[in-house]
Structure to design on (629 residues):
């Protein structure tokens, strides 16, 4: 049984309310930090913990905090990124919905560490009912003296508010999120300057994912060293994984980093294996943006090592044979799923969500969608596969923000590992007319047709 | 989304104004524009779930910003409707994870049942069906959003029931 840090109390009846949360030891980290630690000591504990950004990039949280400009004396802000929109990811929503005060507590302790007096939680507009849950939790925190003026008699003031987006994946990118919080279109900014120097309203700002901030209370209460003992190497602590697709038990799980993919996938404590016991075909381990892995690279790396749920192990082999932990959006595919269709679907998503600022992304995502759609519907040409490769290569690395890369990687990985499926679509259009073409005839049964033609 | 010139009655009720004032208090006095997204949500909710150009102009006036600053936001974010929509808008998530669990079949079933195509509204103005991108409910697929709420683990039977409940006025949107 893995250790629970974030969701330990998530199933306690009434934990959404302030009274129950407090009774279970809630807000202790605020007391401890404000009474016995300087802000810099809190930052040091978070650095020691090795906590890495849980939104997907995995950048060390303590290090990010240490970049905030405290010298200029300008007002500083902590903004929580609750714009969770990466396909396959729904962990932050779970945390906020079931244990909202944990995020509020984390926001207060973290704002203290950064010396902020005005902080925000930016939540995606579709999570409107969660927005109201957070509003209620904040109201309770104000009523009990954890927010407002002169908190715990220390002379430190903090105001905290929830702000809602309105349906734009791009606002999960931190500078786009800041633009959106300023009441504008979500167009990412060119960096530098980084938000730590010029962020919200041109003032020093740190943007952190919900899960990262929710880990702070435990780190402050138990010490960064204790946190660093959980996990393996540079992957410390626990991680929320959102599992979806063709696994037996989809849902949100808290795991200790370092758990093997095999155990996560197959043990009854977690996903319990495959739905209807069909064969596992592919896995996207970290949200739609990360490379898809074919069955033979899921549980073992090419080096023959066990694949583990860590930042390092999931990326072992680079993009040739690995993937990424990303946001922890764990999407499971069985043999009835069509990789071409799935890739087209993802490309449509990125085309829809591109903000349109950079032409490689604005135009390129449209082309990816268009070409993939014609392959998927039986209108594809042999040279389209090379064309796709060429388009994705021209997007990657040529845009202001990582959305371009996120659109390119899934296409590259799909071609790299499932090229035969693309060829099958192009050469046997009559066989893939029906969108459920692999339900009665999984690709394994027809693969020989493609191989024969190639020879 | 296509812009509509349909007439819309603008009514900033005292309750709505109070809510707008509360939202404005969340930002520094000289940063009123920051309240734009949340204010637009509230104004839209109070106006049959869409924002005509005159209504957007009104929001600009309230926040003391230029109308273009409102237009560019309304056209960028998908949750703002620029034309009248059905009383009950079924927004089906159609991104991959939901499709793995039958989202496409279910959306087609719903459209057929209501006699409309994806993106259309029934002639009586009651229902709209649209496909949208990932709503963050991948593990509870297939699903749809209606108003402020999610309906998850859907089946054809649950869709039938939901339509009946909407017709009977038993579904809360906000």
């Amino acid at each position: 049984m893995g250790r629970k840090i974030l969701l330990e109390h998530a199933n306690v009846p009434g934990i959404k309310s302030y009274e129950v949360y407090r009774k279970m030891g809630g807000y202790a980290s605020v007391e401890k930090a404000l009474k016995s630690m300087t802000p810099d000591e809190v930052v040091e504990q978070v650095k020691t913990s090795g906590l890495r950004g849980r939104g997907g990039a995995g950048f060390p949280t303590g290090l990010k905090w240490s970049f905030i400009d405290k010298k200029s004396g300008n007002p500083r802000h902590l903004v929580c990124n609750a714009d969770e929109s990466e396909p396959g990811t729904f962990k932050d929503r779970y945390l906020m919905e079931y244990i909202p005060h944990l995020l509020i507590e984390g926001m207060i302790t973290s704002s203290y560490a950064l010396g902020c007096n005005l902080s925000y939680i930016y939540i995606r507009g579709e999570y409107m009912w969660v927005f109201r849950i957070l509003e209620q939790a904040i109201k309770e925190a104000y009523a009990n003296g954890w927010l407002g003026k002169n908190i715990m008699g220390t002379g430190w003031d903090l105001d905290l508010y929830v702000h809602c987006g309105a349906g734009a994946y791009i606002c999960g990118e931190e500078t786009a999120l800041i633009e959106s919080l300023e009441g504008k279109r979500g167009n990412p900014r060119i960096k530098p300057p980084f938000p730590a120097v010029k962020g919200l309203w041109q003032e020093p700002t740190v943007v952190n994912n919900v899960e990262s901030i929710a880990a702070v209370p435990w780190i402050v209460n138990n010490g960064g060293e204790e946190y660093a003992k959980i996990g393996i190497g540079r992957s410390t602590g626990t991680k929320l994984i959102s599992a979806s697709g063709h696994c037996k038990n989809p849902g949100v799980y808290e795991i200790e980093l370092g758990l093997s993919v095999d155990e996560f996938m197959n043990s009854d404590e977690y996903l319990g294996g495959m739905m209807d016991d069909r064969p596992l075909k592919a896995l996207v381990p970290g949200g739609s943006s990360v490379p898809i892995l074919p069955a033979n690279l899921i549980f073992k790396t090419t080096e023959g090592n066990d694949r583990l749920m860590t930042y390092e192990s999931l990326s072992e082999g680079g993009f040739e044979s690995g993937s990424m932990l990303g946001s922890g959006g764990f999407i499971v595919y069985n043999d009835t799923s069509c990789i071409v269709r799935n890739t087209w679907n993802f490309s449509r998503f990125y085309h829809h969500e591109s903000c349109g600022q950079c032409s490689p992304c604005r135009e390129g995502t449209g082309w990816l969608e268009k070409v993939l759609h014609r392959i998927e519907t039986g209108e594809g040409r042999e040279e389209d596969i090379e064309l796709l490769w060429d388009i994705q290569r021209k997007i990657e690395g040529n845009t202001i923000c990582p959305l371009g890369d996120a659109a390119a990687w899934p296409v590259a990985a799909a071609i790299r590992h499932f090229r035969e499926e693309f060829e099958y679509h192009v050469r046997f259009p009559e066989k893939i007319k029906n969108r459920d073409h692999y339900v009665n005839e999984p690709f394994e049964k027809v693969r020989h047709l493609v191989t024969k033609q190639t020879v | 989304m296509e812009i509509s010139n349909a007439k819309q009655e603008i009514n900033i009720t005292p309750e709505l104004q109070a809510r707008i004032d509360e939202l404005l208090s969340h930002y520094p006095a000289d940063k009123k524009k920051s309240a734009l997204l949340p204010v637009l949500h509230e104004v839209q909710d109070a106006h049959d779930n869409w924002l005509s150009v005159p209504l957007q102009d009104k929001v600009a006036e309230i926040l003391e910003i230029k109308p273009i600053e409102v237009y560019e936001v309304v056209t960028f974010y998908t949750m703002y409707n620029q034309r009248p929509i059905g009383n009950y808008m079924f927004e089906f998530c159609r991104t991959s994870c939901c499709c793995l669990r039958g989202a496409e079949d279910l959306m087609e079933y719903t459209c057929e049942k209501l006699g409309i195509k994806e993106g259309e509204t029934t002639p009586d103005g009651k229902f709209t069906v649209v496909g949208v991108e990932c709503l963050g409910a991948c593990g509870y697929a297939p699903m749809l959003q209606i108003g402020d709420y999610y309906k998850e683990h859907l089946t054809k039977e649950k869709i039938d029931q939901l339509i009946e409940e909407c017709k009977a006025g038993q579904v809360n949107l906000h």
Q: What stands out?
A: Chain A has 19 helices and eleven strands. Chain A has three domains: 18-229, 232-334, 339-454. The mean pLDDT of chain A is 97.
